[in-house]
Amino acid sequence: MAAGDPLRRSTYVSALPEIHLASGDARAPAALLSNGSVVQRLNPAECDGWDAMLLAHPGHSFFQSAAWAKVLQDSYGYTPGYFALTEAGQLRALLPMMEVNSWLTGRRGISLPFTDDCAPLSFDFASFQQLIEAAKRWGQARNWKYLEVRGGRQLFPGALASHSFFAHELKLVNDEPYLLARLDSAVRRAIRKAEKLGVTVEVAQSLEALRLFYSLHCQTRKKHGLPPQPFRFFRNIHRHVLSRQNGMVVLARLQERVVAAGVYFHFGARAIYKYGASNEACQDLRGNNLVMWEAIKWYARHGFETLHFGRTSAASEGLRRFKLGWGVRERRIDYVRYDLRQRSFVSGKDGAFGWYNRLFHVLPVGLSRLVGAVLYRHVA
Question: Which of 208, 214, 305, 316 has the most CB atoms in a 10 Å sphere around its CB?
Answer without folding.
Answer: 214
